[in-house]
Amino acid sequence: MAEADQQMEIKPPANQVSSSAKNPLLTILVILNTAMMGAVAFFQYQSHLKLAATPDIRDVVQAEMKKLSGDEEDGVGSGQAQADDGILFKLDGFTANLAQGDGPRRFVRLNTVLKFSKESNEEEFKRRKAQIRDSIITTLNGKRPEDLLSVQGKNFLKEEIKAAINSFLIDGSVIDVFYISFQIN
Description:
Blueprint: H1 2-8, H2 19-22, H3 24-53, H4 57-76, E1 87-90, E2 94-97, E3 107-116, H5 122-127, H6 129-141, H7 145-149, H8 151-166, E4 174-184
Helix pairs in contact: 4-8, 6-8
């Protein structure tokens, strides 16, 4: 009976070798796949380097603050009054939710006046009032209460608001932001 089982087993012919060794197409596809994966990895790396090189809003605001602090040293330290040229534009009050921190949900109430450069067109910022309000609310929504409680935090917020508004103005720019009221609940 054992001889019958051995006879029933099918043995592959000796001249048949595995199909992957004879098929060069499979080898070419593996090499091509590896090369394509390498190309994708290279382009992702290049994209990452490019994205890392672009400045974020914090870098822009810090550069602007350094530039302003250099200007202030010239005028304030000398004891002479600086020229106060600009157009004041009062905005309606803001009430915006703050970013969730530790503890209960909090919000900020803010009344501001924007000071535009002398060469600004008053009609432009009247037309862009909705854009200005949206950029301020968006900036406020990204802040935590802890960020706004210190004087540095409030000054940093002013710089962020100026940078956000100046990014879409065509004629003129925002010189300063004044807080009329600032309340965090």
